Amino acid sequence: MPSPDSSTSEAHAPSVAVSGSAGTTSELKAVDKDTKAGVGFGIGAYGLWGLLPLYFFILQPAGSVEIVANRVVWSLIFCAGLLTLTHSWGAMAKAFRDRSVLGTLALAAGLIAVNWLTYTYGVTTGQAVEAALGYFINPLVSVLLGVFVLKEKLRPLQWSAVVIGFVAVGVLTVSYGKLPWIALTLAFSFGLYGFVKKRVGPKVDALTSLSVETVVLAPLAGLTMIVLAVNGTATLTTNGTGHFWIMAASGIITAVPLLLFGASARRLPMTTIGLLQYIAPILQFIVALVVFREDMPAERWIGFGIVWLALVVLTVDMLAVTRRNAAVKRATKRAGQPKPTRP
């Protein structure tokens, strides 16, 4: 396609305009199709994460330690199968040869292990509401970590959201009669996990990352499974064939949402991802109240309401900044375009 300042005859001008219009239309359709696919993948990922408490409920009487240990081992087996099918063992080997990548993913593995164990413990001990709270306040914790870890300067609305979040934690502490440690552990472990994963950035894809993390955790997970079996407290092989295969499915249940999220993140702006992330805690909250029938007294509703207010403030700020940045980009693009010359 000729550039705007190309020398073309008047006879060719109409055909150039039609070609440009057709090209732009096809590009817009491709972008729209990609965006729809990204939203679908994102809903799938966060929807599956939101329904995860139901899976842990089905695994009873298995405890949190056994569930997490099995989750690591079966995830590794599933990832090994995917690496073989996609011929991606080279990427895996490359990640292990790069000490900075390996060290970063090892740290990420430790953080996600804490996150998985805390979340599973919360759900299996009748504290799924507090577990959902952890993912509601995670965006607020991420903002706070940006100040202390990345030395970022917060905008006024971000500070307002953080302050409102602190008030909510205070109200919920009074409601629970203790600091909501499950929620805080989940929020900080997952927030730190996100920061650590950003350090490797595009160097590793979602499958390679999960594979390395499970390899790091597998020795301890395997040892845990052996100890539980020797002590007679393991349920993997003692509760029937159905229980065994449901437990073994933890590999698929862990990997599939991560792969869907990776596919979504490649297609969508972070603003859209930031909005989609609320699907998971909303579903977890609904499951805890409707399916598990967990107690939700009035003061706890007030605490959650304050958390949701903080998230509204944070979301308004995020959308405003995104809109402002988009306007600046458009203005910069227009300023950079050559002015049309008169015939």
Beta strands, count: 0
* Low-pLDDT residue intervals, each spanning 5 or more residues: 1-19
Number of helices: 15
Structural class: mainly alpha
Mean pLDDT across all amino acids? 86
The geometry reads as: globular
First and last CA, distance = 21 Å
Helix content: over 70%
What is the helix/strand order?
HHHHHHHHHHHHHHH
Beta-strand proportion: under 5%
Radius of gyration using CA atoms only = 24 Å
What this model shows, in words?
This protein has a domain at 44-138 and 181-293. The protein contains 15 helices and no strands. It has helices at residues 13-50, 52-58, 64-85, 89-97, 99-124, 128-136, 138-148, 156-176, 181-200, 206-231, 240-248, 250-265, 270-276, 279-291, 298-336. Helix 7 (138-148) crosses helix 8 (156-176). Residues 1-19 have low confidence and may be disordered.
Short description:
The protein is mainly α and 343 residues long.
Please write out the topology.
Elements: H1 13-50, H2 52-58, H3 64-85, H4 89-97, H5 99-124, H6 128-136, H7 138-148, H8 156-176, H9 181-200, H10 206-231, H11 240-248, H12 250-265, H13 270-276, H14 279-291, H15 298-336
Helix pairs in contact: 1-12, 1-14, 3-5, 3-10, 3-12, 4-10, 5-6, 5-9, 5-10, 6-9, 6-14, 7-8, 7-9, 8-15
